[in-house]
Amino acid sequence: MSAFEFEFIPKENILEIMPLMMKINSITPEEKLRERILEMSTQNYKCLGIYSDDKLIGICGLWFLTRHYCGKTMEPDHVIIDEKYQGQGVGQQLFDWLFEFAKMEGIEAAELNTYVQNTRSHKFYYNLGFEIKGYHFLKILNRD
Question: Could you tell me the pTM of the whole model?
Fold first, then answer.
């Protein structure tokens, strides 16, 4: 299994994630997506880059907050790995890195959302020890 490198993408370079983000979000217009990513980078958000030979091959957005029911939390969001690198253990290495990072930062829990139809990810997250605890509801108040 190849070793991959993980490092946070600096705010000033955050738009490097656009090509990967557009792979999973074909609905939001590119300019609106760009605006949202720039705004996210000013909030409790960091984006972890996954690199192979200095090439960005994946990303994992992370939101940080404190929840009354589980304490200091990290929420992995938009985990995207280039198709050419899937099935090579990148996801396992990513979450090993995230859990070690969480321990060092005093983070007490990790929680995430995944689409109902993405059954492949469900098995992966179950194997990492995640449990389903609820439903994620969404109501769009203002369309693009």
Answer: 0.92
What is the radius of gyration, based on Cα positions, of the chain?
A: 15
Domain at 5-127: CATH code? 3.40.630.30
Q: What is the pLDDT along the chain (144 residues), one digit of tens a residue?
A: 468 999 999 999 999 999 999 998 989 999 999 999 999 999 999 999 999 999 999 999 999 999 999 999 999 999 999 999 999 999 999 999 999 999 999 999 999 999 899 898 999 999 999 999 999 998 999 875
3-class SS at 68?
coil
- Relative to beta strand 45-52, strand 5-8 is antiparallel
